[in-house]
Structures are given as structure tokens and as C-alpha cells.
Amino acid sequence: MNGETTRPLTAGDIDVQTSASSLDDETPLAAAARDHVALAQRVLATTSLPRPAHTRVFVVANQKGGVGKTTTTVNIAGALALKGLRVLVVDLDPQGNASTALAVPHAEGTPGVYEALVDGTDLDELVRPCPDIPGLTVLPATIDLAGAEIELVSLVARETRLDKALQAYLADCEQAGDRIDYVLIDCPPSLGLLTVNALVAGREVLIPIQSEYYALEGLGQLVRNISLVQKHLNPALDITTILLTMYDARTRLSAGVADEVRAFFGDKVLKTVIPRSVRVSEAPSYQQTVLTYDQSSSGALSYLEAAREITGRV
Ligand code: ADP
Ligand code: MG
Known about the structure:
Strand content: 5-15%
Strand order of the largest sheet: 3-4-2-5-1-6-7
Largest sheet: 7 strands, mixed
Number of strands: 7
Structural class: alpha/beta
Helix content: 40-55%
CATH architecture: 3-Layer(aba) Sandwich
Oligomer: single chain
CATH class: Alpha Beta
Bound molecules: adenosine-5'-diphosphate, magnesium ion
CATH superfamily: P-loop containing nucleotide triphosphate hydrolases
Radius of gyration: 19 Å
Distance between the termini: 34 Å
């Protein structure tokens, strides 16, 4: 853990001159500084987040790779847990990037989501705590999961195996007086059986969209697949949340993509956007979320604010 950045933020950290906002000739840098201060103040004012009436299960999906699914999963989950909620991350990508970022062991052969799906092992035996963030637990993925996509084909109830395992685990936790508030399932970049299992197990779909050219390409297919699962396997499923990631406020491209996404998905799109930030991309190589790696960075503040927004949209 980075010792310098773990001290809680105080008002003093953000006590910078904000009068620039009253100037007509405000520079882009001054505007960015002002926005950062305003965001930090909003985030600091939120010491805890409300528990939902029932466990909310989010599927973080987009069949495109590199759009920020894993980054969003670990940082939203981390933000919710840091604000006092009980959170489970299900790593459903054989790459195991979410397990890495949350510092949970996932070397080949480590029991994890593969054993839950293929062998029917209880989640209770597989879920591990994230060492850096109290209240956050992880069902890890190993490379063994790569074979599950094919192995599942011949198994009974192949689309509902994650749902069964997860529901049993959530019921056990609730009975033990330890209810989980949020589950976030990090999907692989495909629409195969693993993603279908996630869509059957979840109630809300969170789609991260990279603020880049071609951002909307493939979304039609994703939406159609979600509708199919909804119709045949999980009527309760709904796309509730869209998050713009890797947003670059300096480019008209990002603003243009954001406008298009908002025109298409309306108020499902979170007001908060996640800026492109080196700190966000550095954090996983230290086995951390950006929240613990650099808590005052724009990436950390934005994910905290996005998490707050999500808890307010029930
Ligand atoms: P996915 O899970 O959809 O494949 P990732 O979350 O792994 O996408 O992100 C892809 C790459 O982009 C990773 O290297 C990640 O660190 C980087 N990245 C994600 N979000 C940001 C951001 N806001 N700023 C900078 N880099 C980011
Ligand atoms: Mg990923």
C-alpha cells in the first residue's frame, strides 16, 4: 500500500483558491482545478452510503475488451465498501484482472468461480477478503475458467449455474445476519456462456462505455442479447446504468460520444464520467484500486462519486 496516500483526505487538502470561477477569462486548467475541488468537496461530504433494501446484483458487461469493465467493477465495488457497505465482486473473466486489482490470489489451480460453475462448490468455500478494503470480498477467477466456456456446454442448467450458486450464498449470508449489499460481476469481453451466466444471475446491467470513436459500435448486439436473456431466462434483468469511462475533457470527441450515448440511453447514463487518468491505469500493477493507490486523484474521486450516484438510483 502506498503509505503517503492512505491518510484520509481532509478539508485542508482541497482548500485551494476557487475564485477563478468568477473570472470570465478562466483558463481550461483553472476550470479543471475548480471542477476537481468541487468534486472533492462533494465526495468528502459523503461519509457513508445508504444500504439498499435488498441485495443489488450488477452485471458489468460490454463484449468489447478494454472499455473499463474491470476497472469499473473493482473501483465501484471498492468505493461502496469504503463507504461502509458489504460488497462481493465475482470475477468472471479467465484473465482474473479483477482478482489481481483486489490482491486476491488467483494462480492456476486456486479454487474460485470455475469450481462454483463446473463442480458446484459452495461459494462459502471460495470467496476471499480483499486485504486492503474491509467489507469487500472476491470470488476469484483463474485461467482454469477459460475451459469453463466449453465445459459448461454439456452440463445441465448450464445458463443458471452462477445464479443458483450466488442465490444460495446470498441467502446464507443473510441468514447469518451478514447481508451483502452489492454484488458486481465482472464479465469477460464476449457474449458466451460465462456472460450469459452473469446475465441470468444479475438484476441490473452496468455498461461501461469508453469515450472514444466506435464507442457505440457493438452496443446494439449487446442490447439485443440482454433482451434475449430477459425474455427467455431472466425477466427481472434490466439495463439500469451506463458509465462513460476514459473521458478526456480536452477533446470534442469525448464530448461528442457522451452526447450520443446520452441521446441513446437517456437517464440511464450516470452524470459522473470517469476521466482518463494515469493513476487509474497504474493502480492494478500495485494490486490496488485507484481508491487506495491515490485517493485524491480525479479517478478515485470520480469512482467514489459514481458509486454515490448508483446508491441513490434505486
Ligand atoms: P476491460 O475490463 O473492459 O477489458 P479494463 O478495465 O481492463 O477494461 O481497462 C482497459 C485498460 O484501460 C486497462 O489497462 C486499464 O488500466 C485502462 N483504463 C481503464 N480505465 C481507465 C481510465 N479512466 N484512465 C486511464 N486508463 C484506464
Ligand atoms: Mg476486464
